[in-house]
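Quick question: what would this complex look like in 3D?
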Amino acid sequence: MPAQVMDTEPARLRRLTVRRRFSRRGIVGLGMVGLVVLVAVIGPLLAPDDAYKIYGAPYTPPSGSHLLGLDYLGRDALSRFLDGGRSTLLLALAATAVGYAVGLTVGLLAAYRGGFLERILMRATDVLLVFPGLIFVLLLVAVYGSNTLIMIVGVGLANAPRIARVVYTSALRVVELPYVEYARAGGERIWYIARRELLPNIFAPIAVDFGIRLSGSILLIAGLSFLGFGIQPPTPDWGLIISENLTGFSVQPYCMLAPIFAIAFLTVGINLIIDGWRGGSRASKDRSLASAR
Amino acid sequence: MPAHGDSADHRADHRADHRADHRADHRAGLVVEDLRVDLDDSSFDVVRDVGFRCLPGEAIGIVGESGSGKTTVGMALLGYTRPGMSIGAGRVLIDGTDVLSRPADEVTRIRGRTISYVPQEPAKALSPAMRVGRQIAEMLDRQASDGQHSDGQHSDGQAIADRVAAACEAAQLPADPELLRRYPHELSGGQQQRVAIAMALAAGPRVVVMDEPTTGLDVMVQARLLEVIRRIRATTGASIVYISHDLGVVRSLVDKVVVLYGGRIAEAGSVEAIFRSPVHPYTRRLIAAVPRLDGPRLRLRGIPGSAPQPSSRVPGCPFAPRCALVTDQCEHEMPPATDTPTGYVRCWRAGEPDPLPADDDAAGERAVPSRAPAGAALLTLTDLHAVYRRKLSLLRASRDTTAVAVASLSLAIGDGECVALVGESGSGKTTIARCVAGLHRWTGGQMTFDGSPVPADPRKRGPGLRRSIQIVFQDPDGSLNPQMQVAELLGRPLKRDFNLPPRARTARSAELLDLVHLPASYLRRYPAELSGGEKQRVALARALAARPRLLVCDEITSALDVAVQASILELLMELRAELAMAMLFISHDLAVVRAISDRVVVLRAGVIRESRDTDELFATPGDPYTSELLAAVPDLPPGDYSGFASQI
């Protein structure tokens, strides 16, 4: 007998018992990400001091006037932390978006068209996968120089092969399903099929992947800044703050702790949201995206 | 004591000893009493008051629609439930020992040894990473390592090999050591199922639960497998519980039948009694819905409505909402079990004539109208040649091998004619459907529609031609995009092909739903909220949205229950008469084909063996292969209940 025997009862069960879109875990994740975004957005307004001004000796420990102490140049660590979130988040989001623009196109095209195009695209993807992301971006920076645009595009492209791989693998299962064939037989254009038939049905694995890519982008940008190619000092940036102050970790760890925790919160929070999201609509039988892992 | 386990089997002997005192008494075999399975975290039960008895060497069939609780009962016999359910009450006695009251670790030992399970999909039940011989032997290893009989004999490789061989022989797997070294994917579907059966038999169980073991297999493969099961029953002396929605298969295999509806037993009795003179209205409707190979070609009648969910049952008889004989009492009070000559029935109005199939409908009206006069050829295939590619290497396109699916095939479908393509899997019937629908590129020959040539690529066909040929697929779950509501599923072709504005689309979509007998409120539903039959209806409505002149139906009922199948076929007949479409109906089920088609084309290995008028073909099959196919169909014998008052 077809799958429906096994499916109808548990599906109805889930409909009965699960009303909310997020599990407790997802709500915790939402809170964590919300907090970090809030800090990034309104942080500059709350900064007690000037993020660029030198207040005392490098690596001065926390005190009443400087809650997180001073950094390697003697600037207020708290103010730099509150000031630095925006650029970090925006850059990471932009880079991830570039990655998805390229990765989705390549992955969907390869899976849907098949044949020669599939071979070319996926082999090219494999070749790019061989380069570690950092090396790849450094290569681009070496050729085109270091600026924000190159960094966004570079980090995006470094992510793209991995995204393409995930999209391709998930889409492979969907492209041969009858509803996609029906659209094909009806003469639908590839744009419509990709957007309406394929994408919504591979959303779960892509959403899971998104969290990994976004936090990966943040770390990659931080790494680039550390090497001196990303955001240029004295601009405050979470990734940069961590790398700048690394030498003083044993002396004054507090100036780095806030950005470290913020990035960790963001990464863990995004993954919790994705784990705890039970699908947005009645359409999904499979309520837990965690099962896509 | 299983006959095949006799050889040097100390443990089986030992077990027989402590069982010896029960052998002769009334407790032998399988006895199920008042079984109830509950849904966790709710007050609903999935199955309730289920009880039956199956003597050693006997086979009992559990029949019912999807969602009737068949599989739940089958698994509960092994003390197992799917996640989210638990066994609430009842006893499952095997030779007098209650499985359900044993501690968990003992139940684990009982499973596979005393009672074993043959799952529905062997391809998923076998471990893909383990050689099949090892998988069968593992059943014995596990038994041997229990430590209960540590006399050293049982871990002996030769003894295990002997028993594996015996199990394979019972399952009629070739005694080829090479076969046992293969991995499941290297076996055919029929062989995989035999391996699953051999695993179930390996330890010489007293009870074997078979859950739709032949569903999804080809009709010829199924026929051979049923032969295997019959032989097992005759030789092992085990009680066989056979779960199936296929009444023909059950009819040909078992001694007793339990009809399950909404998790309750509607009727139980001997196989003859149930099939010849059923008394429960549900059983009657179910049997009348089975298409037949013999007798007059009757228009099939489905059962209106769909099987109830545990949460939506009425307090009384679960069948009441769909029953033609329903009274107030039926809705509010669960009928008690009333004895019948060979079993019992739970119905307040048992045996009363069902007004729908009998009174409402004169025999003449129910008969299938003789074939419509075939108009001019609508679709012609001339010397069509098609291959499919087997992908072997990702890098080298040239290394891919091709297999011939259709070899210079010529076929014509007249305007308004219904042509059925039948054949085993691999006969090329689906490839033809896909070529016609524009989903498969043929390598040679021509196709014309209404006199003009048809290109293979659907994008090159032009909107008129694309609209004229529509397809409905086999798999109801895959046919509809799960992320779209019915309104969008139906609205898209209306927008694409007719450029209707949104309001007109909604109106026309509601009209289309009405055409397939679904309420307009379904426009807001997602596919996950539809039953299998309802999904197929929506898929049909979507195809009809284009006002096609040729409807290609690729096995559209083979994934459905018999009652749902009957109502879909009923609907198709109605639509054909109403809309004057031609149909290319692809099926492996000859009885279904007989019920619906004007002409039958028998295919084998991509070549037409026979193409005849339906009535003629079933009266006097011309090709030996057709006769072979006909013989393989587990059909209901002519004497069985067919839904007429004259027989009551």
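Answer marked as accepted. Chain B has 24 helices and 22 strands.
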